């Protein structure tokens, strides 16, 4: 929209129907509202992939970098970041359970100086920009890369539970079959859910570690404890049950604590080879012991993001064939978002149109629960690698979008701006602040032809917005489940009259 020339002063007046909301919205019901789409981007902290760019940067530098990420996400109309807060039994937030991450301060256990809490900062600043913050945890990885356990802080889980901490390749991995390890992951996650105003909890594809040829995962003694205690499952089934138990427990725990906090997982994109027929590749069911199809079918997640890091055309790992298969598994109508590797445009020299075509294909399936995507990872958009940010802005995410509604996360119906207090002053629309605690965002629409286009997402504490021209506008309250209230609709004209919509 183009802002009016300040020299062209116009007197605005407004008449708002004060009867019922239904009368108030009138012919809005006959119009089309902008579509919903989850637009996420992973922000990886492990090995300082995306943020902070150096573990030796000071607090002000780290804050500036994080604000740059959030501003870029808003500019490109992303509506969520997936922020890695526990890469390896550590914390990029203030925890009494686990040590501060070395990726943040250069040494595990060292407090940021000057002190700040990166997660609290990310949540507050993300929400100001209408961006959801999903916290990304790695449940079992205890150490990434070739570093000895001597560098671990004294309260690190590998130090606390050394009998269940195994050096496997260049990493240290905790035993998913140990109850204390499961409890640690659960307690860490619930601590964050209870103390921070986050929007989601997120796991990636790391469960049992990716296998190393000739080296089995060394959990023989834990499995022996299970069988001597009367267990009858095979080793493989027992491992899958260990992961299933934690997934189900975390989902239930989140819903008891804060039902509106979403739980999502981004598993390896192939559940098992030949699913669907003709697909070849890594078997995550038998190698990572991740029965991701079961989690989706049982409704133990609110959304699943299979990592579909392949092109559309090759039949052995076809993006579209796999996406269709995953959609078919959502028996509980949970959302499926396509995990996409934006970095392949740089690393594998994919054409930008490949990512564009994948988003187009996903959107074509929106009626069948393909409701968005998450891109890996933020640095490619921050740096505009091979022009990818420009491409998204011009061709894919030209306008803002609300996240899809999750109907099973029942909350109170959002309120609508009080019509008796919705006014126009100069070029500014002004309404009452929400005091119910229900509103997460305000969505502002402009009617163009017969379509209500979303033009802005506003922070819940915002009560003003400058309009750019005469026309019909609608303001709707949005809650944490992404449900919108009925709209308060106004028709703004020059001096000479106002129009009641409806």
UniProtKB/TrEMBL annotation:
Keywords: Signal. Pfam families: GHL10. Residues 37-340 form the Glycosyl hydrolase-like domain. It comes from the Eukaryota. The keyword Hydrolase does not apply. InterPro entries: Divisome_Glycosyl_Hydrolase, GH, GHL10. This is Glycosyl hydrolase-like 10 domain-containing protein.
